Amino acid sequence: MFGLMGKILRVNLAKESILQEDIPEDMARKFLGGRGLATKYLFDELEPGADPLGPENKLIFMSGLLTGTPSPSASRYSIVTKSPLTGIWAQSSSGGRWGVDLKHSGFDGIIFEGASEKPVYLIIDNEKAELRDAAELWGKNVSETTWLLKKTLGNAFNVAAIGLAGESLVSYAAVMNDLHRAAGRCGVGAVMGSKRLKAIAVRGSKEIAIAQEKAFHEVAGKQFELLNESILGAGLEAYGTALVLDMVNVCGGLLTRNWQTGVCSFAEKINGESLSEKVLVSPVGCFSCPIKCGRNSEIRKGPYEGQKGEGPEYESIGTFGAMCDISDLEAITMAHYLCNDYGLDTISCGNTIAFTMECFERGILTKEDSDGLEIAFGNADTMIQLVHKIAKREGIGNLLAEGTRHMARRLGRGSERFAMNVKGLELPAYDSRGAKITGLAFATANRGGDHITAYVQAPTYLAAPFLVIEESEIQDPLKENPQEAKVVKELEDALTVFDAAGCCKFMGLALDADEWSAIVATLTGWDFGVEEFRKTGERIYNLERAFNIREGITRADDTLPKRLLEEPLPEGPAEGQVNNLEILLDPYYEFRGWDKDTGGPTPEKLRELGLEEVIST
Amino acid sequence: MYQYGTREWDEAYAKMIEERRNTEQAPFILGTPEWVSEFEKKIQADERYKEVAQKWEGSVVLVFKADPQAGFDNDVFLFMDLWHGECRSARLVPPEIGRSGEYVLEAEYDRWKRILKKELNVVKELATRKLKLVPFEFKKAAKLTAAAQAALRLVDLGSQVGTRFPDDVDAKQAEAFKALLQELKTEFAI
Description:
The complex is a heterodimer.
Chain A: E1 7-12, E2 17-22, H1 25-31, H2 34-45, E3 59-63, E4 77-82, E5 89-94, H3 98-104, E6 109-113, E7 120-125, E8 128-133, H4 142-153, E9 158-161, H5 164-167, E10 175-177, E11 181-183, H6 188-194, E12 197-203, H7 213-228, H8 231-239, H9 244-250, H10 267-270, H11 272-278, E13 280-284, E14 294-298, E15 308-310, H12 314-323, H13 329-342, H14 346-361, H15 380-392, H16 397-400, H17 403-411, E16 421-422, E17 425-426, H18 436-444, H19 485-501, H20 507-510, H21 513-524, H22 530-550, H23 562-566, H24 582-592, H25 603-608, H26 612-615
Parallel strand pairs in A: 1-6, 7-12
Antiparallel strand pairs in A: 1-2, 3-4, 3-6, 4-5, 7-8, 9-10, 9-12, 10-11, 13-14, 14-15, 16-17
Helix pairs in contact in A: 1-2, 2-19, 2-22, 7-21, 12-13, 12-14, 13-15, 19-22, 19-24, 21-22
Chain B: H1 7-23, E1 28-29, H2 33-45, H3 47-52, E2 60-65, E3 76-83, E4 86-93, H4 95-99, E5 103-108, H5 109-116, H6 122-127, E6 132-133, H7 138-146, H8 148-160, E7 163-164, H9 171-188
Parallel strand pairs in B: 1-7, 2-5
Antiparallel strand pairs in B: 2-3, 3-4, 5-6
């Protein structure tokens, strides 16, 4: 098979068995790899109603179709499972180079089943795989685990691991790879912890077969040329993803004090320029990425002086900074470093801390609940302490470790109004009241409240059109235009292909579907044009939705927190705005060909996409 | 011929605008000094532009590539002196001055026309290099990306200026337009 290695590992942790399986080519053709293939395995193999933290759940790592090839940004792998945070389909993707090394080890992916009785790690060395005892690694964080494994196995091994947060089953624990790169969302690290799987170390030198070598390199070369003169690429390399902070703030959508306002008065202290001045050492890129939006950084002053790492990214700054009302960029950076080392999703973590601060402000929580800790907006020390407590489930951290939906259910007293999640997944750092179409994307994303499922922030907050779909323009971000629901649908489908291919979604801003189809076609030898590109994304997206419907999701779950639906923004360019979601939902289902009552794919749609086997499930 | 950068040039240019604003029929033709003056006033009066461009520093030059069929025998340079949300001036300038601007953005006349008519998205045109930053410099490209909202607002304001396009006017007006450009070249080195 071209592009893919054509094999996966099936690791049963309870039985300590490791099997190799071939990936059928017709399955690869329909689902490509990464998020697509992994979802197909999960859908077929997981019984509905499975406990996400029980041994019956499956944890699937899958590199993308293009991962490891010299195509721009082809570095990524996906983790797909059932989420302990949301109870539905979970997917989290990460860059760096671990996904590349996994593929070069001879396997596209790994399916973990069961749960081990004792801590273990998996080592894969050029097609040989083995489970080993991880007793000495258990209780250690990501950096120490990584360095110990490298010391034992050699530097050529690349490590994906969980930290203390994954071990203690924090509902939004991440899997970290390359030390600083996170498969952060949906609590995939908790699933790994529940299986007592501490780490996966991979090494490999297997070649990826390319069907049309010369043509492939020509297409890839042209893509690099285009990206090297892309103004979007230049902006991301210069400022990192924090580039967008000012852009969001000038539109009135920088959700400050747990989304109580969209105007952040201290934006200039935490924006991309400030980041460059205060902590940036150098830009860092993932494998084969011409953009380098990552930040190699160091804290140069204050109580955390001397700490080093990567980041922070925009989402960490938005959640620990604006949401928590903290202007101290060094403290924000430290919270981000801690999350990386504990293995925590910064979006859910920062959002949950901001929610807790508001609960204190409103008297829903008091010092009696927090072991005497004074939790208030703007208190950076408290924020740092809470990150430690969450990861270790210490004191009030045990409550925060469950995320905002669980907390609001437990605390009551109206707190669900400002628990900023959708389907249990904490929302990212863009206020949808400042760009209405983003609210539709948050409400309908298959994994819950998420910004990069459709990334419709680009044509709204960032004024940057997505070239990978034909028309992504949003006429007036402050108006709900039913026709523009189509943009969300088309972006969801197109960006799904990026996750299946293992490429960064930023590339969709600069390169069009013709270019992406050509790279898949020349890699695989398949007759793969733009139409198949779009259809493949739609097929995978519908399969994910079918998984969620099987788990009990309905149209009623495609909604937003009441704060967004009912509380107008108090100031700024979006003053007075709320999300009128219903105006957009029906058109969205129509564009999708879904049942408007259930919010699920119709049998006709599933047949059209070649998903007949899903109809009866 | 007036020498750019001298008081005489400035006064003569201002006088010409004043006269033409009184004699020419509105809406003005794109590329004329009076149209540029209208655009300048729009920017200077716009609160939203001040807000979204509060961090912007540096001159922006729009280059309309020569298009004889549209009446442009030579490249035309529209120089905007922009600083932290203020438009200190916007005017036509000689080519060597235009080329010395900090952010020189170059496109065919027809592309500018379609951008102003909002048929094309200015950020998309920049991203696809149809509207070119000349020369391409990494740091400047990064600053432009960060200023996308300001760029969009400038286009909004440009589109709000009532505009007649030189390739859409009748033959007599087209002749007068060509004569004006010739006069600008002769008198002001534009």
